[in-house]
Amino acid sequence: MVSTQLNPAQLNVLSLMSYIDTEQEQQELQEILLNFYREKTDKLLSQFQKENNITQQTLDDWAGQHERTEY
């Protein structure tokens, strides 16, 4: 088994986890972390769309395309 070291952010989160006493608190923290990464992902996607001039119409056009490999 390969051993990996935790980075400072991971150690900090683990330290904070020591204050969680209930399943409810664990679920609340998990939801907070998920929302944090959801927001980061949304911002990156919006930035990518702006930089590459991708509009809703572009996405709709892509959704209607059929680019399957012929067998």
Verbal overview:
The model has no long low-confidence stretch (mean pLDDT 91). The chain has helices spanning 8-17, 23-51, 56-64. The chain has three helices and no strands. Helix content is 68%, strand content 0%. The chain has 71 residues and is mainly α. The relative contact order is 0.05.
Which tags fit this structure?
71 residues
Instruction: Supply the number of helical segments.
Output: 3
Question: Please, what is the average pLDDT?
Answer: 91
How does the helix and strand content classify structurally?
mainly alpha
Which of globular, elongated, flat, extended, rod-shaped describes the shape? elongated
Number of strands: 0
Beta-strand share of residues: under 5%
Low-confidence runs: none
How far the N terminus sits from the C terminus, by CA atoms, comes to 42 Å
The helix/strand series, from N terminus to C terminus, equals: HHH
What does the main sheet amount to? none
Radius of gyration: 20 Å
**Percent range for helical residues?**
55-70%
How are the elements arranged and paired?
Blueprint lengths: L7 H10 L5 H29 L4 H9 L7
Question: What is the gist of this entry?
Answer:
The protein is mainly α.
